[in-house]
Amino acid sequence: MVRIFIDGASGTTGLEIRERLSGRSDIALLSLDEEHRRDPEARAEALNAADIVILCLPDDAAREAVALITNPHTRVIDASTAHRTAPDWVYGLPELSAAQASAIAEARLVSNPGCYPTGFLLLVAPLVRAGVIPADWPISVNAASGYSGGGKPMIAEFTTGGESTALRGYALGLAHKHVPEMQLYAGLLHPPIFAPAVAATYRGMIVEVPLPLHALPGRPTLATIREMLRAAHADAPTIRFGSEDAALIRVEDDAGTDRVTLHVCGNDASGQARLIATLDNLGKGAAGAAVQNLNIMAGLDPRAGLIL
């Protein structure tokens, strides 16, 4: 039985992780009562007693928690942004490449991916590796997430009548905290132009990368792009592919699940494509990814506890 401690278990992601782990006979959840949740000594004891710790904390608090672990045996999954591009941490997206799941299985320190980068990388990284998209290509990505991605403050803002808009763009200065991991793990020489937005829906996410196929080397067709993505993700239980003749794709299409749906849409005559991923910002974009990484690190069924 694997001993798990969720530091930050009362937050949105922590609660979702706990829900996925509840009732499992192969997991023993360690917990602190409310009185000791912020007590450094109690936290340190729980952190060092666990086989695997999952950090659902702000960046600075996540760094602090790692510093409290004083033994070489406790392994860490960090759901914050703090360590996503750190060289001594393994990036926790098992579908990123053929070798990534093995690297996660052997790692002591794993950084959970961001929700937006998850959709972006599953679409773009295989095509960059294959040379279909040059590493110096000026990539852009448009995306919209449910408001639960903003945590408790944003949830309160949308649910108490403080926000009336249906869609709002943000990070207009093009310095969103997810951009570094997008660039690094896609193998891009330049940061993508990232245009995120918040939609007036609790959960769900849509990530879209437009591609001018006629301008790319070799002028690939839509069928070529689909075939390459299907081959790259052929063995991934968390990834499915949408219909080639889809007429409508919604931000909520994979809400409430821990999967990702990839779409390759467009028009060969115009040489234009729209690569689209839908996922749940709280599922595969956060809690589901953490549980999947936990399963892999513990040598358990990677799909255990996931909603697929």
Main attributes of the structure:
single chain; 308 residues; alpha/beta; seven-stranded mixed β-sheet; six-stranded parallel β-sheet; 9 helices; globular
Would you mind describing this structure in some detail?
Strand 1 (2-7), helix 1 and strand 2 form a beta-alpha-beta unit. The longest helix has 15 residues, at 115-129. It is globular and about 65 Å long. With 308 residues, it is α/β, with parallel strands linked by helices. The chain contains nine helices and 13 strands.
State mean pLDDT (0 to 100 scale). 94
Give the low-confidence spans: none
Q: Order of strands in the sheet with the most strands?
A: 8-9-7-10-13-12-11
The total strand number stands at 13
Quote the beta fraction: 15-25%
Task: Briefly note the structural class of the backbone.
Answer: alpha/beta
The helix count comes to: 9
Radius of gyration: 19 Å
Give the ordered list of helices and strands.
Answer: EHEHEHEEHEHEHEHEEHEEEH
How does the SSE layout of this entry go?
Elements: E1 2-7, H1 12-21, E2 27-30, H2 40-49, E3 52-55, H3 59-68, E4 75-78, E5 90-91, H4 100-106, E6 109-111, H5 115-129, E7 140-146, H6 151-159, E8 167-169, H7 179-186, E9 193-199, E10 205-212, H8 222-232, E11 239-241, E12 260-267, E13 272-279, H9 283-297
Parallel strand pairs: 1-2, 1-3, 3-4, 4-6, 5-6, 7-9, 11-12
Antiparallel strand pairs: 7-10, 8-9, 10-13, 12-13
